Amino acid sequence: MASSNARWCGLALALGLGMLSGCGPSSPGAGVESASEAPSGMSQAQDLERGLDGIWSTGVSQGDDAETIYAIEWQDAYGLRIVRNGAPLAGAVEDVDVDNQTLAFRVARENGPDETVTLRRVQDPASGPGFTLRVTWAQGRTEMLGFVRRLTDRDRQEIELEIRQTAVLPQAVACGGDARADSLRATLACSEIEFAELDRGLRTQLVELSARYPDGDRTAAAVVKQLDACKTPECLRDAYAQWQTYFDDNYDLGDVLDYL
Q: What is the pairing mode between strands 79-84 and 142-149?
């Protein structure tokens, strides 16, 4: 299992953050508000939620205290969406206290009790109009977050992908196979017929490959690693096609019933 630091580093790369510790202002501040004016008629509560839109970090990445990264997105259609270290917090805002600059976000869990997380804007005297964000969990644990930057289009795509994958994750696990549970391959293999057929056919060949050839296990591991690294459907299609060509050119994979 990779270390905590490696996991957070991977998330940082996925979101295009690079090295985050000690970088960026403490909050969006006045610049963000002036760059994108709030729509007319937006309530103060919605404006408070919208003001949290961006990438946030604890800024701690030494020893066992790995840096924690939050991607917070606000949209008219969805309201507030939160991804913490690559894991979406399934839930929704249940209360907003404009006077105290706080909001309560109810996290819903299938395997465990629900939990209300409180997010509070804390004025930062050192950054003028900027602020930090204090996250308080139900059991009293707190995290102080500093603002890193606004969300890019790539960030928003990553958030959408993480949420979509989480929504079908139980189904993906039930599909079986060797796809990593949080991979795009697992998601598509359980949600789209095209990829289900491609993955089923490939997995059948991998079983035979491992059973009949000395280098079969090593080759199968390389196949799985490449497929699970794909982040787009196009990448997966190409990978399936390339490996199929490779198998046709280098192995005699025929009747596989005896190996299943």
A: unpaired
